[in-house]
Amino acid sequence: MKLYFNPKSRAVIAKWMLDECGAEYEIVPISFEKGEHKAPEFLKINPAGKLPALVDGATRVFEGAAICMYLAEKYPQANLAPKVGSPERGRFLSLMVYSTSQLEPSMGDFLLKAPTAPSRGWTDFEGALNAIERELGEGPYLFGDWFTAADVMIGSMFIWQRMFGSKSGRPKIDAYVDRLLARPKGMKMG
Ligand SMILES: N[C@@H](CCC(=O)N[C@@H](CS)C(=O)NCC(=O)O)C(=O)O
To answer: Which of 46, 51, 98, 187 for a ligand 1 pocket mutation test, highest count of atoms within 8 Å of Cβ?
Structure first.
């Protein structure tokens, strides 16, 4: 399995997930400076020309959330996702999609000081924080004591925010992010 990777990219999220799965994989370094992510051979893997991308034999996966869901299915022994048909499955899928469709763009608006137009399909950052606080409940993770790929996707967004120099400002969420960062295989930016 090959992870197309740059340490200053969202590929660190996919790497975190691979490590939590205990997967064996090869890192393929991609230079943004050299434009390797826009090279024809890379566009055959991810037509968007972005990181992360994963190749597993004849399978290619792009988009961080898709990679995390793929890996959770490939490594069931890591127990990082509710099983198909289980009552938690719907909420799990919802949180995975929410991470990139609502939380990430709302955080982007917040960090860039851009107004959030509701017609664009995502909430403002305050709304996203409210939603995550509700879903986190008493924690320690989104599914109580059970750490899942949803924590990788949702948590990595807040870790990302810290890289940009700010915290969520919500004590419950900030304590959650501290817990995620303290995990032995937790996400590292480099
Ligand atoms: N929604 C995508 C976002 C991917 C993305 O924007 N990756 C950035 C790096 S963090 C990238 O490759 N940017 C290079 C470019 O767009 O030219 C995902 O989660 O995979």
So the answer is: 51
